[in-house]
């Protein structure tokens, strides 16, 4: 319910096998409104280029092996404790509109802190879109 409407749980630690390796996707959902799979990777550390590459690979594997012809492209979400904007800027994530990284908190911020975070994101968004 916290993800929003239309999400159906598909798998936890879904095992994906390639010719030479085994991989495990933390969480897999399907969204009936978006008509696509949503893969979630949980990182208990700072975002790295390896994490982005890993999610990019998961999305490509899912699009190749699981996505049906009438499905939209798979979305990949990386939740991490700290997001490095430089890593995001120079990675495949900046070119792929279906990969996202977001900082998560292990606690709910108070109302004042939440307002400050929203305002900071709004200002950053406006500055980014002025260029």
TrEMBL record:
Pfam families: YhcG_C (PF06250). One of its GO terms (molecular function) is nucleic acid binding. It comes from the Bacteria. Residues 1-116 form the YhcG PDDEXK nuclease domain. This is YhcG PDDEXK nuclease domain-containing protein. It comes from Chryseobacterium polytrichastri.
């Amino acid at each position: 319910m916290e993800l929003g409407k239309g999400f159906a749980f598909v798998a936890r630690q879904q095992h994906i096998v390639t010719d030479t390796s085994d991989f495990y996707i933390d969480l897999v959902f399907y969204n009936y409104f978006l008509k696509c799979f949503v893969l979630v990777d949980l990182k208990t550390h700072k975002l790295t280029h390896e994490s982005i590459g890993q999610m990019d690979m998961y999305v490509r594997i899912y699009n190749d092996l699981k996505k049906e012809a009438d499905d939209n492209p798979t979305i990949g979400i990386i939740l991490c404790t700290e997001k490095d904007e430089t890593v995001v800027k120079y990675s495949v994530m900046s070119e792929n509109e279906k990969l996202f990284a977001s900082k998560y908190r292990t606690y709910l911020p108070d109302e004042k802190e939440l307002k400050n975070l929203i305002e900071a994101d709004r200002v950053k968004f406006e500055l980014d879109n002025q260029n």
